[in-house]
Target: Hydrogenase-1 operon protein HyaE
Amino acid sequence: MSSLLHSPARRPEEHPLLQALLVRHGYPSLTPESLPDFLALPGESALFFVEDPQRFGETLDLAVILPELVAASPRPLRAGVLMPAAARALAPRYGIQRWPALVFVRGNDYLGALEGTHDWSEYLRLMPQLLAAAGTPAPVVGVPLTRLTSAAGAAS
Model:
């Protein structure tokens, strides 16, 4: 197993642990274009936001944890993988600020996110709460919109 953890891959998505999610577990590799079709499926989903494991070693930890979380879920749970380019493109949409991350959704409804890695007991405690949550708009990351005022102070 240590050779899997330390074997360099040319690109993050070629890492054996990330490939296992796609091949062995059958999780789809999602893109901004394919995400809407994935979200249109019924039920809850966990979106795995992947970052380069050379820079964010916890990415590989979460790659090992994710199938166990799916198996331990109190409700049916689909998983999808967003490789680094897709993850970076979609991170602002879900308010992701720390890598790696799991975003829980029901359709287009945001249920919550777990950023970084956690103790197994924390996953088991938090995941049922997230999956039972009422959906809300995702906490978008970006520049807040403000009213512009003219030099005279009148709102424009």
Remarks:
- The CA atoms of residues 19 and 125 lie 28 Å apart.
- Confidence is low (pLDDT under 50) at residues 143-156.
